[in-house]
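Tutorial sheet, problem 5. The two components below are modelled jointly, 812 residues in total.
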Amino acid sequence: MAGSRESLVAGLRAQLNGWGSAWHPGWEPEEVDAGNLGVRQEEKGEAGWERILPRSWGVRGGLIEWFEARVGDGSGSAALMMAQQRYLSPSSGMAKWLVVIDVEGAFYPPGVVRYGVSLRHMIVVRVRDPHDLVWAWEQALRSSATAVVWGRVEKLTCKEFRRLQLAAEHGKTVGMLVRGAYRSRDPSWADWGFLVSPCLSAVPSWGCRRWKVQVVRCRGGKCGEEVILREKEEGWHG
Amino acid sequence: MNRRILCLVFPHWPVQRLWGAHPELRAGELVVHRRDARRGDIVVDCCPRGYRAGIRPGMPLAEAHAMAHHSPPQTFSSRREASSSRREASSSRREVSSSRREVVGENRPGRRQFHRYDPEEDRAELQRLAEWCQQFTPVVGLDDQSPPTALLLDVTRTAGRFGGEQTLGAQILQQFVTREWVLQGGFASTLGGAWAAAHEAAPQTLLSLAGKEWEDFQAAIPVTRLRLDRLTEERLSQLGIQTFGELLMLPRDGLRLRLGAHLLQRIDQLLGRTLEPIQAYRSRDPLEIQYAFEHPTDRWEVIEQVVRQMVYSLVERLRAQGMGVLRLQWEFRLPHGKKRALEVSLFRPMAQPEYLIRLLLTRLECHKHVSLWEIQGLVLRVVLSVPLLEHRSQSLWTSRMDGANVRRGEEGETAGDLEEGAARALAQLVEQLSCRLGRESVLGVRLLADPDPEQGYRYLELAGGNPEPPRSHGQTVEKSGTRELPLWLLPTPLAIQVQRDLKQGHLLTMESPMAAPRLCQIHAWNGPERIQGGWWRGRTIARDYYRVEDKQGGRWWIFRELMSSKWFLHGVYG
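Model answer (structure tokens):
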């Protein structure tokens, strides 16, 4: 009996180690110094995404956190771009409704068009009372009509995070939570966490925007991978 | 998507309405008359037999009497008008009371019969037909003529559900003809065009022209089909202008000066330069059920039981009418005459009591202080309902979802099952969110062709019945192009300081409370993009917009107000 218990505990521990330490509460991400990380060569199209997020992920639903050090660094745009390419395009075979949870009332719908998002398949949910925020996220994630729920979320308790994760798995939907980088140390039930930081061109000129997207949280994978995203006229390309 | 409007005209509507109410009147000649303050009783309309006998609208009633070649005419009048009619009619006339406003006398086939004109009842009957036509499209209205004699149907998004415009037209025509209505109709991309086409069509036909045929037809439309006032029509006639094509050749400034802006408005409406919305008809009488408690109560198990009964009773009445609810109001009567109301909005018409009860109770749970209420009575009121045709409504509401947007399902599930399942899930999501957050918080988006950034889009409430694009002055567009617009727009532009190189005009630094650090160096910028306009809304904007990138890589959307030369932060590229 004692042996079986020990073996059970050992098995569970092995499972936990296999999943990586990133997904469960109490995990602390590695110290990330963007300046010391060598930026890899730009990868275009799906290959760039494939390196940091396997295509198979998301079929069963889950959460992704997108961190940005400053407002306007671009994590929202990168999240939308991935949502469109992976989960909202007709070829994805999923329900293609995008639900935007707008808690600040500042979301600007014309801004999403250039990423290829169809406004005809987008629902904007304006949440005025912060107490309703998690409930609205949960409802949207739980619905089988939804493919992606996108929005800015700052404070989330561990219990609320878990509710969202279960809702996403129940509805087989993908939740894209745009958050400040200081939240990357908070307990999390997200499967993935990406830190987005802008890359400036050497010559001061207006042009396509480039970002470095770095994996800072990963369930069952390795942190530290990064990819450069580059903007084209028709949207963002990884 | 091009707008498609169907106009249905009912020639000799007062006569047709009376025929519908009293089929026995079809046997004889029918003359409808009214009292004119200056000319006395005059003929308003008459049936085709009367026309053949020489009776014309505007003719004195006495003359129409004199033309009678049979025995003295039968006159049908309402009780309130009986005394005045008695003076003119023969002594042999009889009055027969009825619950309706019209009082019909003895039916004598082949005799000329006279009837008082009742514009209110004519309008009410037309409104009933408009309600009936809502099975074809939710947007059905009456024309803006006085009195109205035509129905306007916006079939832009619904014609496809019936197999196309021609099939839909044939179906509508057949159903009206079966009910012995005489009508003529026309399809067009504008309301004015459809109205003109319908009036030019032959009885019991629908005119649907396209391309070159439509252009030829449009040029030949008589000016009397432009919905102008009589004075303008007479002036155009004096000028020798007979057709729309001839009118278009005249200079606009001259037309405005001589004939007024109304004529130009009609021209623009017919050509589609100005959007002319259909004022959709909604029934004014709400369907409601009331319940009064003997004593005020705060026991929610009792209230829930009563509400359950009320909803079942209401749904039964709705189903009997073939209607589904889109907006439901729950009113609580409190002591001292106070009232509180909660409203539940639905994404698609519903007549399932248990689902409605669940939504009502969810809505109630969200309301604060509800447990403190001492309730004296309850009112359950249907604010908005539309015909509930199971298959048709489903296909209509699922039209927003195409076949590709459904998850791959389990084995044995057909594409139709999946589509219906996804549509139901979407409806449930919208209804649940609307129920708790309010109808105004769950929104769809349409882009508008307006240069003003704040006016470049419009939110649409998804629940509570608003499936069509908003009625706005702007034209809806599919895409905003590839303009680099921000993801976040500040509700009120934030005043900032921007330093410029005065010689070369380059932007150097930006000082904003939102940026970190507050004073940041500008790395690159793009602009200006000048946006001017909005004077027609009384809020003129004149701005030079710039996209700027600071040294940290953050991108901002800022503008300089041309009048004051002050700088503002307006958007953030997230």
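Marking note: Chain A touches chain B through 61 residues (CB under 8 Å). Full credit if you identified this.
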